[in-house]
Amino acid sequence: MSAAQLTMSANQETAFALLIAICIAGLLALMSGFLIIAMAWSEYDQQDRERAESAEPRPSGGTLVRRAIARRCPRCGRGALFRGYMTMNQACPACGAEFWQNAGEWMGPVVMDYSVAAGGALVTWSIMVLLSAPEFFQIIVPALVAAAGGAAVVPWSRSFWTLFLFVNGEMGLASKPAKTARLKPLAKKVLEFGRRGGDRSGNRRD
After folding, report:
1. What gap in Å lies between CA 111 and CA 157, rounded to an integer?
2. Against a cut of 0.90, is the pTM above it?
3. Which residues of 136-165 are buried (b: 16+ CB within 10 A; e: fewer)?
4. pLDDT at 75
5. Which of the two residues, 15 and 100, has the higher pLDDT score?
6. Across all residues in the chain, what is the average pLDDT?
């Protein structure tokens, strides 16, 4: 192979430099994420010490990560975060805790989705250029990777963001779900009739 064939073109040099820059930016982003999580975790430990006598158990870090991967409520671990692939429940169906209290909480997961989509597209484009792929594939393949990556990460970006809110103390408190509200009108009437009958029998005994 001649020296001319080993020399990279201008596009390949740009792609190689871009690939290195993305790797460095990704490493810095991971370090920043770990720093933010460490700061939130220190506050979580402080809250744990302050609530040591509380009846509500405080899950460990490994338990919280497993719940986030399984897309379960970080507080109780039983209720599902989603009722569809991209549709979140407003509150936990098991413990009643409200997941996102503020209207702007969606911005965090959207930034994560965009970062994964843009990073995947740029990395794919760099690899395609370095492999001297046709220009058609240099455009189509990164676009497909961006769309697939952005859509695939949606449930877990929201799950881990909810975990971050819980650790940071910004998630709603647990409350018993209102099961009576889910009953049919006929069942409600039966319950009311039973309560009235119980009250009457109690009055007669008095």
Report:
1. 9
2. no
3. eebeebbeebbeebbeebbbbbbbbbbbbb
4. 87
5. 100
6. 75
Return the H-helix or E-strand segment holding 16: helix 10-50
| Residues 88-96: contacts with CB under 8 Å, at least 24 apart | 88/158, 91/172, 91/177, 92/174, 93/177, 94/177, 95/174, 95/175, 95/176, 95/177, 96/174, 96/175, 96/176, 96/177, 96/178
**DSSP-assigned states of every residue in 119-153:** HHHHHHHHHHHHTT--HHHHHHHHHHHHHHHHHHT
pLDDT tens-digit map of 166-175: 887 777 666 6
For residue 26, give both structure tokens.
């990704």
